[in-house]
Specification:
This protein is α+β, with helices and mostly antiparallel strands. The protein contains 13 helices and 22 strands. The chain folds into two domains: 3-20 and 238-447, Enolpyruvate transferase domain (UDP-n-acetylglucosamine1-carboxyvinyl-transferase, Chain), CATH 3.65.10.10; 22-224, UDP-n-acetylglucosamine1-carboxyvinyl-transferase, Chain. Helix content is 29%, strand content 25%. Helix 7 packs parallel to helix 12. It binds shikimate-3-phosphate.
């Protein structure tokens, strides 16, 4: 089992790009697989989560050619031969690994197909709530059995059938649930509507639109008329802002640092992490921006500063739910209190991220009070190195590797294989940051590309 050994650095002067966006890569595998014609997907994220979704689509009959590959991981450019909306029955149960996004989106898609199939995942995924997709899909007439040891949990046996459109108001703001219902709605006759209680990431709507499928937005309601078949097109996935967030925090909380992150997704349903870190006092500038294949992207410059604590607004939480572990690290480095509440959803992520963040922060000497729906961190206490657990959660492993860059002594993060679920190459970037930090000249971390 691999681990990271991290030592403190004084400042960060780097230019880097992060691998492709995880949320978009899942959706690209699914939507291009359903499309009429062939699509080339570039900068696909070859992480375990997204590869599982790609393999799931392959099990349902979607063929693809690998055009470029990141050695040791998987394809970064693919030609996907769409099946014009007609999938075939997978021969075996489908492994979704660690991915809630994969399982929930596939559940929506497969509930509407004329065959029975099964989805399963690892131990963490088998304890995450699937009732949140089973409920709306059942309302559409789907038949899904949750066969897990825990009620409402995977494995899921999905008896696919013709579904009816519905209007579903989500009790929790979840892009995964919204996307599952919209993907099922593609196969219904009539209009499917999802109403979200707060803004959630809108990659499904944007990507459907880019592939020629019309959706309509009315306040927080999204309408989709069934029977539309996506039209193949080429799509380039921007860098993942959730992966960039680790380096944003590393640079932002280190006065004198300057970091340039290139080609990162800047969709406004994902950029609350930038707003929060700016509020804490770091200077973050969008130095160039453009829109590519329906998704905003650009380059970000981050200049480090002495940070101060902040309060996360309730409406920001769905927009930065994946970044909260590393924001907690920034909070530990900031003077004063940072209040993170209304974030109970953190308890049903890959781990209970309130408990795992609190445990790790405390083991490094951080002051943090735990609440059922979040935490309050009193920053400014010097962190010390510790031996820490990732708990098998990629974002916990990476967030506390970043904390190690600020801590005295040595930080050991154990069980780090899990970072491959979202950030292949993180270990190499971390090593480059530690090695080069002594060089006062600005330097470049090699951009993650198939040749590296
Ligand atoms: C995701 C949505 C979020 C996020 C997850 C990816 C997606 O989950 O935490 O990592 O791609 O739709 P919820 O929508 O369930 O909050």
């Amino acid at each position: 089992m691999s681990h990271f050994i991290v030592k403190a650095i004084n400042s960060l002067h780097a230019e880097l790009s992060v691998p492709g966006d995880k949320s978009m890569s899942h959706r690209a595998a699914i939507i291009a697989g359903l499309a009429q014609g062939d699509s080339v997907i570039r900068n696909f994220l070859p992480s375990e989560d997204c590869l599982n979704t790609l393999h799931a689509m392959a099990a349902a009959g979607v063929e693809y050619d690998v055009l470029e590959e990141l050695e040791g991981y998987g394809p970064t450019a693919l030609r996907i031969h769409g099946r014009k909306g007609k999938l075939q029955a997978p021969q075996n149960p489908i492994d979704c690994g660690n991915s809630g996004t994969g399982m929930r989106l596939l559940a929506g898609l497969l509930a509407a197909q004329p065959f029975t199939c099964e989805l399963f995942g690892d131990e963490s995924l088998s304890s995450r709530p699937m009732g949140r997709v089973i409920t709306p899909l059942s309302q559409m007439g789907a038949e899904i059995e949750a066969m897990g040891e825990k009620p409402g949990c995977a494995p899921l046996r999905i008896h696919g059938k013709m579904l009816q459109p519905t209007t579903y108001t989500m009790p929790v703001a979840s892009a995964q649930v919204k996307s599952a219902v919209l993907l099922a709605g593609l196969f219904c006759e009539g209009v499917t509507t999802v109403v979200q209680p707060a803004e959630t990431r809108d990659h499904t709507e944007r990507m459907l639109e880019a592939f020629g499928v019309k959706t309509e937005r009315e306040g927080q309601a999204i309408h989709l008329s069934g029977g539309q078949i996506p039209l193949a097109r080429d799509f380039r996935v921007p860098g993942d802002i959730s992966s960039a967030a680790f380096w944003i925090v590393a640079a932002a909380a280190m006065p004198g640092s300057r970091l340039l992150i290139r080609n990162v997704g800047l969709n406004s349903t994902r950029t609350a992490v930038i707003d929060v870190i700016r509020r804490m006092g770091a200077k973050i500038t969008v130095v160039s921006s453009s829109s590519q294949d329906g998704e905003p992207m650009g380059d970000l410059e981050i200049c480090g500063a002495a940070l101060t604590g902040t309060e996360i607004f309730p409406q920001e939480v769905p927009n930065l739910i994946d970044e909260i572990p590393v924001i907690a690290v920034a909070a530990a480095m900031a003077q004063g209190k940072t209040v993170i509440r209304n974030a109970k959803e953190l308890r049903v992520k890959e781990t209970d991220r309130i408990t795992t963040v609190v445990n790790n922060l405390r083991s490094m000497g951080g002051e943090v009070e735990e609440f059922e729906d979040g935490m309050v961190i009193t920053g400014g206490h010097p962190l010390h190195g510790a031996v820490m657990q990732s708990y098998g959660d990629h974002r916990i492993a990476m967030a506390f590797a970043i904390a190690g860059l600020f801590a005295s002594g040595e930080t050991v993060m154990e069980n780090t294989d899990c970072v491959n679920t979202s950030y292949p190459g993180f270990a190499r970037h971390l090593a480059a940051v530690m090695q080069e930090s002594t060089d006062p000249q600005a330097y470049q971390i090699p951009i993650l590309s198939p040749s590296h």
